[in-house]
Design goal:
- By secondary structure, this protein is mainly alpha-helical.
- It has a domain of 52 residues.
- The chain has 4 helices and no strands.
């Protein structure tokens, strides 16, 4: 089975033509889109909004890092302190 539907490919084709003409603009900043990959991403998101058969977006690495990127305090800092104090005692 195909990953993308016909409606999705039509949207991407339309967006690529706009990019080639220089009329495709980013929705957030309003700047002209020059990148081919960005133009395809815009076309797929438009197709997704229109209800075409398009796979869901992959989650970005930023969201993955924020949930599992919490630092834990390890017990190694306690062992370091105790080993330092014992080494000082031995040297005396």
């Amino acid at each position: 089975m195909a990953k993308y539907g016909k409606k999705a490919s039509d949207k991407v084709r339309k967006v690529m033509r706009e990019r080639k003409r220089g009329t495709l603009k980013s929705s957030r900043s309003g700047k002209k889109v020059k990148s081919r990959k960005q133009a395809i991403a815009i076309g797929l998101s438009e197709a997704r909004r229109a209800g075409a058969k398009v796979p869901s977006k992959k989650s970005s690495s930023k969201t993955k890092k924020s949930s599992s990127g919490k630092k834990r305090k390890s017990s190694s800092s306690k062992t370091r302190k105790s080993s330092r104090s014992s080494s000082k005692r031995k040297s005396r």
